Amino acid sequence: MLAEMAPDVDDAERVDQIRVLEELKAAAAAAQARASVDLDVSQRHAQAAAGVPAARRGIGVGAQVALARRESPHTGGRHLGLAKALVLEMPHTHAALTSGAISEWRATLLVRESACLTRADRATFDEQMAGDVATLTALGDRHLVAQAKKLAYALDPAQVVARARRAETERTVTVRPAPDTMTYLTALLPVAQGVAAYAALTRDADTRRSQGESRTRGQVMADTLVERLTGQAAAEKVPLEVGLIMTGPSLLADDDEPAHVPGYGPVPAGWARDLVRGRLDDDAGVWVRRLFHAPGAGELTQLDSRARLAPAGLARFVTARDRTCRTPWCDAPIRHQDHITPWADGGATTADNLQGLCEACNHSKQAPGWQSERRAGPDRRHTVATRTPTGHEYLSHAPPLVDPPPAAAAAPPPSSAPPTAPLRPIEVYPAVVNCAETLVETRFAAALAAA
């Protein structure tokens, strides 16, 4: 119905439509919050009936919310926490969201700033901040947060101070992809340490610039950060220890098939060649491991083990195949090699019966009612069906390491076919060849010559 909104209206009516749609989005978010809380209550009752200990009840509910919203489990868990705070502890804020007076983001700000308060103090906070909708809607985001912080501190200053102390224990460093083969390295630090680190980089950059350094201030700061963290004399000389995945023709010739950096994603073949060749020119260590994939499907062939835990080689294999957590829309780094058919139920420790999962998704899968099974996938790609306790089913396909050839492509002449079984090499993890790390030793030279 929304897609059929009349386009032949004047601009004043278009502005009115935007306002009404914004209010509809807020009302939908409030309804989602109510449904999420109802799901959580129902699932906890079901888990209690199944004998799940009280401390573990509720596990997997955030993951179900995430799958329904087509978001990561981490985001789903945040939404469930937001929903429980709004529905169970902040009725005025939830009512304002339901009426469309505030957006989901502004409701999130109020929940965030009151998170350290007791339930009774939070009720007071909710009434004073959201009881008067006219006053609430007149505030911008910055003033809203300032008012919320001030009120939270007035209600319980000790808890606000304790919250700040707890925040220091959450200091960490993360990395995430940025456009154009760049990346964001982010440090969450106590404010004094963060400001001091930034000031040190700034002073060093300003000193070098005053001495005639041609790089920009930002470039000097970034290079200095890398040099101090890695101990290298120059930022560009760091040893190459990223898991670069690329085809033999892309590495050794001028093929344009993109390479893949685990934890980052696709990168241009030319950039990957320059990276490897630059390290060779600098006499830096570059290591190569060899895996094979089936032509056409672009999927790695499998390895197996009789052990319950995947050995290192098989674990690397599964990680290279799956790249990120196999739960749909998760994309978190792989931490566990999970048995699709559980080991206790006779599931084998093979690449076919393993999937890479993040820690949170693997733990969610242990809750009652979750099931996984192998399915036949498109182009023979490794496919897993995950069924939640509510009976909803989600499919996950392993990404192809290389794009399969077009369906209409002509078959190569017999003389160009590999002399043995049709295996093509994938060059995995940069370096001078280390045969001890070879995962499939036979036929490599012949297949490489024919590729």
Strand content: 5-15%
Look at the helices and sheets and give the structural class.
Answer: alpha+beta
Q: What are the low-pLDDT stretches, counting only 5+ consecutive residues below 50?
A: 415-451
Overall shape: it is: globular
Query: What is the number of E strands?
Result: 16
Q: Brief description of this entry?
A:
The protein is an alpha+beta fold and 451 residues long. Helix content is 45%, strand content 15%.
Question: Can you describe this structure?
Answer:
With about 450 residues, this protein is an alpha+beta fold. About 45% of the residues lie in helices and about 15% in strands. It is globular and about 65 Å long. Helix 2 crosses helix 3, helix 6 runs antiparallel to helix 8 and helix 10 crosses helix 11. The C terminus is likely disordered. Strands 3, 6, 7, 15 and 16 form a 5-stranded mixed sheet that branches. The protein has a 3-stranded antiparallel sheet with strand order 12-13-14, with no helix packed on it. A two-stranded antiparallel sheet has the order 1-2. Keywords: Endonuclease, Hydrolase, Nuclease. This is HNH endonuclease. One of its GO terms (molecular function) is endonuclease activity. InterPro entries: HNH, HNH_nuc.
SSE blueprint and pairings:
Elements (H helix, E strand, L loop, with lengths): L10 H39 L11 H9 L3 H17 L1 H9 L4 H10 L5 H12 L2 H5 L3 H15 L1 H12 L3 E7 L3 E7 L2 H20 L6 H14 L14 E3 H5 L6 E3 L3 E3 L1 H13 L5 E8 L4 E2 L3 E2 L6 H11 L13 E4 L9 E2 L3 E4 L1 H6 L6 E5 L7 E5 L5 E5 L26 E5 L3 E2 L10 H7 L1
Parallel strand pairs: 6-16
Antiparallel strand pairs: 1-2, 3-15, 4-5, 6-7, 6-15, 8-10, 9-11, 12-13, 13-14
Helix pairs in contact: 1-3, 1-4, 2-3, 3-4, 4-6, 5-8, 6-8, 8-9, 10-11
Organism: Georgenia faecalis
Keywords: Endonuclease, Hydrolase, Nuclease
InterPro entries: HNH, HNH_nuc
